[in-house]
Specification:
Blueprint (H helix, E strand, L loop, with lengths): L9 E9 L3 E10 L4 E5 L6 H8 L7 E6 L2 E2 L5 H10 L1 E4 L11 H11 L6 H6 L15 H14 L4 E5 L7 H18 L2 E5 L3 H4 L4 E6 L2 E7 L4
Helix pairs in contact: 3-5, 5-6
Adenosine-5'-triphosphate (ATP) binds next to helix 1.
Length: 225
Protein backbone atom coordinates (compact mmCIF):
# COMPACT_ATOMS: atom_id res chain seq x y z
CA UNK A 1 0.00 0.00 0.00
CA UNK A 2 1.37 3.42 -0.84
CA UNK A 3 1.94 5.74 2.05
CA UNK A 4 1.60 9.52 1.94
CA UNK A 5 5.03 11.10 2.16
CA UNK A 6 5.55 12.46 5.65
CA UNK A 7 5.87 16.23 5.85
CA UNK A 8 9.42 17.21 6.81
CA UNK A 9 9.82 18.32 10.41
CA UNK A 10 12.77 20.51 9.47
CA UNK A 11 13.76 22.20 6.25
CA UNK A 12 16.67 24.56 5.82
CA UNK A 13 16.74 26.20 2.39
CA UNK A 14 19.86 27.81 0.93
CA UNK A 15 21.07 29.09 4.28
CA UNK A 16 24.00 31.48 4.52
CA UNK A 17 25.68 33.14 7.47
CA UNK A 18 28.77 35.25 8.19
CA UNK A 19 30.17 36.78 11.31
CA UNK A 20 33.74 38.12 11.06
CA UNK A 21 34.20 35.79 8.13
CA UNK A 22 31.75 33.84 5.93
CA UNK A 23 30.72 30.65 7.74
CA UNK A 24 28.59 28.89 5.15
CA UNK A 25 26.39 29.45 2.15
CA UNK A 26 23.79 27.56 0.19
CA UNK A 27 23.23 25.03 2.97
CA UNK A 28 20.05 23.01 2.50
CA UNK A 29 18.85 20.17 4.65
CA UNK A 30 15.57 18.31 5.09
CA UNK A 31 14.67 16.00 7.95
CA UNK A 32 11.64 13.76 8.46
CA UNK A 33 10.25 12.47 11.76
CA UNK A 34 12.42 9.72 13.24
CA UNK A 35 15.52 10.77 11.30
CA UNK A 36 18.92 11.53 12.80
CA UNK A 37 21.63 13.79 11.39
CA UNK A 38 25.13 14.52 12.71
CA UNK A 39 27.28 17.46 11.64
CA UNK A 40 31.04 17.43 12.16
CA UNK A 41 33.66 20.04 11.32
CA UNK A 42 36.54 22.17 12.60
CA UNK A 43 36.15 24.47 15.56
CA UNK A 44 34.87 27.81 14.29
CA UNK A 45 33.39 26.39 11.08
CA UNK A 46 29.90 27.51 12.12
CA UNK A 47 28.30 24.31 13.43
CA UNK A 48 26.71 25.94 16.48
CA UNK A 49 25.53 28.88 14.39
CA UNK A 50 23.88 26.49 11.92
CA UNK A 51 22.25 24.53 14.76
CA UNK A 52 20.90 27.74 16.33
CA UNK A 53 19.61 28.89 12.95
CA UNK A 54 17.80 25.60 12.28
CA UNK A 55 16.39 25.68 15.82
CA UNK A 56 14.86 29.12 15.32
CA UNK A 57 17.30 31.12 17.47
CA UNK A 58 19.53 32.94 14.95
CA UNK A 59 17.91 34.32 11.84
CA UNK A 60 19.92 33.34 8.75
CA UNK A 61 21.39 36.13 6.61
CA UNK A 62 20.04 34.31 3.57
CA UNK A 63 17.62 31.47 3.13
CA UNK A 64 14.69 30.13 5.08
CA UNK A 65 13.98 27.66 7.86
CA UNK A 66 10.73 25.71 8.08
CA UNK A 67 10.01 23.95 11.34
CA UNK A 68 7.00 21.63 11.15
CA UNK A 69 6.22 23.27 7.80
CA UNK A 70 6.18 26.78 9.27
CA UNK A 71 8.61 29.56 8.30
CA UNK A 72 9.95 30.06 11.79
CA UNK A 73 11.46 33.54 11.26
CA UNK A 74 8.26 34.87 9.75
CA UNK A 75 5.92 33.72 12.51
CA UNK A 76 4.42 35.96 15.14
CA UNK A 77 6.43 35.91 18.35
CA UNK A 78 3.67 33.98 20.15
CA UNK A 79 3.50 31.17 17.62
CA UNK A 80 7.28 30.95 17.46
CA UNK A 81 7.40 30.69 21.24
CA UNK A 82 4.77 27.93 21.19
CA UNK A 83 6.75 25.88 18.70
CA UNK A 84 9.90 26.33 20.77
CA UNK A 85 8.23 25.48 24.04
CA UNK A 86 6.22 22.44 23.04
CA UNK A 87 7.93 20.94 20.05
CA UNK A 88 11.64 21.66 20.01
CA UNK A 89 14.34 20.81 22.50
CA UNK A 90 17.81 22.33 22.41
CA UNK A 91 20.82 20.91 24.20
CA UNK A 92 23.26 23.83 24.22
CA UNK A 93 27.02 23.49 24.00
CA UNK A 94 27.18 25.51 27.25
CA UNK A 95 24.32 24.17 29.27
CA UNK A 96 22.60 27.22 30.75
CA UNK A 97 21.39 25.35 33.82
CA UNK A 98 20.30 27.46 36.79
CA UNK A 99 23.32 26.99 39.03
CA UNK A 100 21.55 27.82 42.30
CA UNK A 101 18.84 25.19 41.76
CA UNK A 102 19.19 21.44 42.02
CA UNK A 103 19.34 19.26 38.94
CA UNK A 104 15.80 18.07 39.58
CA UNK A 105 14.47 21.62 39.92
CA UNK A 106 16.07 22.53 36.61
CA UNK A 107 14.39 19.57 34.92
CA UNK A 108 11.07 20.28 36.63
CA UNK A 109 10.93 23.88 35.43
CA UNK A 110 11.43 22.88 31.80
CA UNK A 111 9.03 19.93 31.99
CA UNK A 112 6.35 22.03 33.67
CA UNK A 113 6.58 24.82 31.08
CA UNK A 114 5.97 22.21 28.39
CA UNK A 115 3.08 20.67 30.35
CA UNK A 116 5.00 17.46 31.12
CA UNK A 117 6.37 15.70 34.19
CA UNK A 118 9.70 14.08 35.05
CA UNK A 119 10.18 10.47 34.00
CA UNK A 120 12.13 8.72 36.80
CA UNK A 121 13.23 6.06 34.33
CA UNK A 122 14.99 8.72 32.26
CA UNK A 123 17.02 9.80 35.32
CA UNK A 124 17.98 6.17 35.97
CA UNK A 125 18.85 5.62 32.33
CA UNK A 126 21.19 8.62 32.34
CA UNK A 127 22.62 7.49 35.70
CA UNK A 128 21.91 10.78 37.42
CA UNK A 129 19.16 9.67 39.83
CA UNK A 130 21.55 9.73 42.80
CA UNK A 131 22.94 13.21 42.13
CA UNK A 132 19.94 15.01 40.72
CA UNK A 133 18.96 16.52 44.08
CA UNK A 134 22.30 18.27 44.47
CA UNK A 135 22.81 21.88 43.46
CA UNK A 136 23.96 22.16 39.85
CA UNK A 137 27.08 24.01 41.04
CA UNK A 138 28.07 20.83 42.94
CA UNK A 139 27.73 18.55 39.91
CA UNK A 140 30.59 17.54 37.62
CA UNK A 141 30.64 18.82 34.03
CA UNK A 142 29.49 15.45 32.70
CA UNK A 143 26.68 15.21 35.27
CA UNK A 144 25.52 18.70 34.32
CA UNK A 145 25.53 17.65 30.69
CA UNK A 146 23.25 14.71 31.46
CA UNK A 147 20.93 16.86 33.60
CA UNK A 148 20.68 19.23 30.68
CA UNK A 149 19.78 16.34 28.36
CA UNK A 150 17.17 15.07 30.85
CA UNK A 151 15.75 18.57 30.99
CA UNK A 152 15.35 18.67 27.21
CA UNK A 153 13.91 15.15 26.88
CA UNK A 154 11.44 15.80 29.72
CA UNK A 155 9.80 18.41 27.50
CA UNK A 156 9.06 15.55 25.09
CA UNK A 157 10.10 17.49 21.97
CA UNK A 158 9.37 16.36 18.42
CA UNK A 159 12.79 17.53 17.30
CA UNK A 160 15.99 17.71 19.33
CA UNK A 161 18.91 19.97 18.50
CA UNK A 162 21.96 18.78 20.41
CA UNK A 163 25.24 20.74 20.31
CA UNK A 164 28.09 18.48 21.43
CA UNK A 165 25.86 16.53 23.86
CA UNK A 166 28.77 14.24 24.74
CA UNK A 167 31.47 16.93 24.82
CA UNK A 168 32.35 16.46 28.49
CA UNK A 169 31.88 12.71 28.69
CA UNK A 170 34.08 9.64 28.76
CA UNK A 171 33.41 7.06 26.07
CA UNK A 172 31.18 4.85 28.19
CA UNK A 173 28.99 7.71 29.37
CA UNK A 174 28.90 9.11 25.84
CA UNK A 175 27.52 5.76 24.66
CA UNK A 176 24.88 5.87 27.37
CA UNK A 177 23.82 9.35 26.29
CA UNK A 178 23.64 8.38 22.61
CA UNK A 179 21.66 5.23 23.41
CA UNK A 180 19.23 7.28 25.50
CA UNK A 181 18.80 9.77 22.66
CA UNK A 182 18.34 6.94 20.16
CA UNK A 183 15.69 5.29 22.36
CA UNK A 184 13.84 8.57 22.68
CA UNK A 185 13.96 9.13 18.92
CA UNK A 186 12.62 5.62 18.27
CA UNK A 187 9.89 5.72 20.91
CA UNK A 188 8.66 9.22 20.03
CA UNK A 189 9.47 9.31 16.31
CA UNK A 190 11.35 12.49 17.05
CA UNK A 191 14.07 13.91 14.80
CA UNK A 192 17.60 14.51 16.08
CA UNK A 193 20.00 17.09 14.67
CA UNK A 194 23.33 16.99 16.44
CA UNK A 195 26.80 18.47 16.28
CA UNK A 196 29.81 16.50 17.44
CA UNK A 197 33.57 16.28 17.06
CA UNK A 198 33.55 12.57 17.77
CA UNK A 199 33.19 10.22 14.77
CA UNK A 200 32.06 7.39 17.07
CA UNK A 201 29.22 9.59 18.34
CA UNK A 202 28.31 10.77 14.83
CA UNK A 203 28.06 7.13 13.75
CA UNK A 204 24.92 6.76 15.86
CA UNK A 205 23.15 8.98 13.33
CA UNK A 206 21.70 7.93 10.02
CA UNK A 207 23.22 10.76 7.98
CA UNK A 208 26.58 12.36 8.65
CA UNK A 209 27.78 15.68 7.22
CA UNK A 210 30.87 17.86 7.44
CA UNK A 211 30.71 21.63 7.53
CA UNK A 212 33.84 22.57 5.62
CA UNK A 213 34.85 25.21 3.08
CA UNK A 214 31.51 26.92 3.76
CA UNK A 215 29.57 23.89 2.55
CA UNK A 216 27.60 21.15 4.22
CA UNK A 217 28.79 17.96 2.56
CA UNK A 218 27.50 14.43 3.21
CA UNK A 219 30.30 12.15 4.36
CA UNK A 220 28.33 8.97 4.62
CA UNK A 221 25.77 7.09 6.57
CA UNK A 222 26.08 5.92 10.15
CA UNK A 223 24.28 2.95 11.59
CA UNK A 224 21.39 4.94 13.07
CA UNK A 225 17.89 5.61 11.80
N1 LIG B 1 26.96 35.97 18.15
C1 LIG B 1 28.12 36.05 17.50
N2 LIG B 1 28.67 37.23 17.18
C2 LIG B 1 29.84 37.30 16.50
N3 LIG B 1 30.52 36.24 16.09
C3 LIG B 1 30.03 35.03 16.38
C4 LIG B 1 28.80 34.86 17.11
N4 LIG B 1 28.56 33.54 17.25
C5 LIG B 1 29.59 32.92 16.65
N5 LIG B 1 30.47 33.79 16.14
C6 LIG B 1 31.70 33.47 15.40
O1 LIG B 1 31.38 32.60 14.33
C7 LIG B 1 32.36 31.59 14.18
C8 LIG B 1 31.68 30.23 14.25
O2 LIG B 1 31.19 29.99 15.56
P1 LIG B 1 30.40 28.65 15.94
O3 LIG B 1 30.14 28.73 17.38
O4 LIG B 1 29.24 28.52 15.02
O5 LIG B 1 31.51 27.55 15.55
P2 LIG B 1 31.53 25.98 15.86
O6 LIG B 1 31.77 25.30 14.56
O7 LIG B 1 30.35 25.58 16.64
O8 LIG B 1 32.86 25.85 16.75
P3 LIG B 1 33.18 24.86 17.99
O9 LIG B 1 33.46 23.51 17.36
O10 LIG B 1 34.41 25.46 18.60
O11 LIG B 1 32.01 24.85 18.91
C9 LIG B 1 33.39 31.84 15.28
O12 LIG B 1 34.47 32.53 14.71
C10 LIG B 1 32.66 32.71 16.28
O13 LIG B 1 33.53 33.61 16.92
MG1 LIG C 1 30.07 24.98 18.57
Amino acid sequence: MSQAKAEPVLEGRSLAHSFDYPLYRDVSLTMAAGETVAVMGRSGSGKSTLLHTLAGLIEPMEGEVLLFGKPIYRLKEEEKERLRRYRTGIVFQSHYLFKGLTGRENIEVAAMLAGEGIDPELLRRLEIEKVVDQKVSELSGGQQQRVSLARVLSKRPRIIFADEPTGNLDQQTAELVMETLQEYVDASRAALFMVTHDPAVAAYCRRIYRLEDQRLTPVGDGQGK
